[in-house]
Records
---
Amino acid sequence: MPSLEHACGCGRSGELSAPRLRRDTPERACLDPEELRLMAADVHALTAGERPWAAGAVLVAGRGPVVAVEEAAGWAVRYAGFDPRSDAGVELPDAERVPMTVDTPFDLASLTKLFTAVAAVQQIERGTLGIDARVGAYLPDFRVAAEHGITVRQLLTHTSGLRPELPLYDCADDAERLRLLRAEPPATEPGTPVYSDLNMLLLQHLLERLTGRPLDVLIRDGITRPLGMTATGFGPCPGAAATEDQRRPWAKADRGPLRGVVHDENAWALGGVAGHAGLFSTGPDLAVFCRTLLAGGSYGPARILGPDFVELLLTPPGLGFAVDQPWFMGALAGRGAAGHTGFTGTSLVLDPATDTFLVLLATTVHPRRRPPDSRPRAALATRLARAVGATKGHPGT
């Protein structure tokens, strides 16, 4: 995990460094300790029983530069697979299970989109990418997107009109996948909100064409390495929490039990590095990511974005980020809270109004996917909002 000590020295530019995260008490974070105790208990309850909400989970939350709660519950690996006849997981013996720890890596799924969005806004800040420029200006070979005038902003705000996904996992090779992506027209008029993985796949191609570097290198060199997020990167990640016993008909590919390789079928077909999925990370690393954005783009001596561009990233409707969505943000929503969820059970919320963050990583698809249920995410976010409301003051830096 990146260093959590309080650091307030001089950065490379001669300006004061942004304080690093440090572990401390709820009181030092100006958060109500009883609400945080209940948050931790809730996470354990979510992983208990024969059919839990998740086999395992990690919670990291705090305010200002203080991490006030870190909790791991359940198992990183609980099941050997899924038995469709009994509609239940095949339990491993206790000796073969892998306990969850705070530092267990998770397949982030769609939280990857947030890193792709930051990489794009970094290019906007540098002046090499125009937010309202047409995608065709950078990717003329994507003729259908060019003909429909799809813009960079529309990709980042999921208003390109492209459908949610394509069956790239059924293509014979990369050339066929690229042909399919290039030929895909908008399903609705551009400007219409339609959440789509294709937006971030096009953005990945644009960024790679623009910079001459692959997306994994852009994210590593521009975000994770400067921030000291050493546990964050594209897979494979052998020590990660298990995901799904991935088989048809409930999945889109027959791959068997998955651990440490990307769960998303399209990201898998693309080699594990994709604009919409593929990153692995830990709760403490994602807390650093949240804190960096809450601090205006800086963490310690590192700066990944300027404050004006963080504001651009998080201003409604958000670039890559969802803003003020009560269905997973609970009572934190309403004053500019931003975040995202991931299909594997991941989520994060950062709230500039209260300077708080909440990272919840859970194995909700282990041993197999189920209809999504974000009520536990919203309930935990509401507890954090109550923890702020029950105190006075703000954690000092």
---
Amino acid sequence: MSDELQRITAIGDPYLLLREVTTRLAEAQQEVTELARLRRRVVQDLHAQGLSYAQIATKAGLSRGRIHQIRHTGPAPEGAFLGRGAVIVATPLRRDDERRRTVVAVDDVSSGKRLEDLARSYGLDVTSEHVPVSGEIDLNRDGLVVVCGPRMSQEMWDTYGKDPVLRWGQADDGPWTVTDARTGTVYRSGQETDPARPYDVGYLGRLRRPDGQGSLLAIAGIHTQGSLGVVQLLTSDLNTLWGQVGENRFSTLVGVEYDPETNEPVSVELLCPLYRHDEEPMA
């Protein structure tokens, strides 16, 4: 019996015992899920290196049938792109000055819901929250996926500022843009071009937390259609993204053609490489 289990078993207060057991069971289930994900990842990596399942089985002291079962069951490794065990999806609240009330943009709701569904499909526990109108949010937490641009939160502005390649800013004529420092290309939304067109630019990056103890996944569009396009890319091509950057810090831009009636993405494409910021995996 582990020390933790002995501690819980010794609790005399039945209500505290119930609370502790419930909490520990949730933690244990997350651990089991992540261990299963790691096991499947190891088998896939070894097979990709050229080992047969029979060779992997022999070296691991397992049966070939068990290796096949591990390879095809359990949570997929690419789910770790979003987080480990549990994720928190944060979307912004906005201020309606005309009606003097706080509102949620429909596109932000859609982005958040689709991210939650995606995370659950990979066996991750999901909670959701809002970035308040003030923009204040605690970014020093594990498993954060934040859908929020730099102009809506000082904390996010500071975090985006750590990106060594892609830089947010405002053009001389007013609109927000993103500049690729390596190529000098300035990207802007189709809403601010002449003639205007249903096109936006989305940002996707895994960036360093303020405390330096981990990373968060940041998603933003110049407008909300850009965020929807990033989420579309994640839901359709997460395996490829995972294969290219794994759990390392990176950033990229996504071009989004959208339906002007519904704001739904019609097509998405990468506008630049997935820029690796360093070789250090997220903590």
---
Amino acid sequence: MNTKHKVYLIALAFASCTFSSCTSEDPVPENDGELITDVTLTFQEIDASGNSVGAPFDFTASDAEGIEIGSTPTVETVMLAKGKTYQMTIDVYNAVAGEDITEEIEAEGDEHQFYFLGSAFTSSPFLSYAYDDNGEELIGLKGIVTVQQSPGFNNANMQILLRHALDKNYPGADNPNFTNYAQAGGESDLDITFPVVVE
């Protein structure tokens, strides 16, 4: 190969690289939210005085790719009993990084809040929810779930939504069933729906 031919090939490669921007792959869009792979709801039945009854039990939603970005999360069906009251706690985990996100949510309680929507709470509801967090901020990591004694039907959906960077002083934002949550600003770190069956 002569020198003139080499120079031609180098120039051709440079021009090709310039027109294609020399990118081997498209940039991956940034996701500022936490990667959440596992959400566990733990229920502890309580009596009228707030004392624990029996052993706690839990239900989990998980997706190894992240619940918000994965295509097929595995979601267990929540099974509750008519006329019972439960303390429900939420644990949030990032299995990819081995990180307990629950602690971060609690530490940044002024920036986070859970909302509880879906037909179980909003359309002929048979569940009610009240915040029961230990700190000054209403977050929803701990709350009281009450099942109606005679619900009109025995299955529904429980949508659990975690909002981040919202205005917690916005009118109605302290309502755990606030359907207009988007008006308080912020963004969703988590949006997962559990089927619920009442026995």
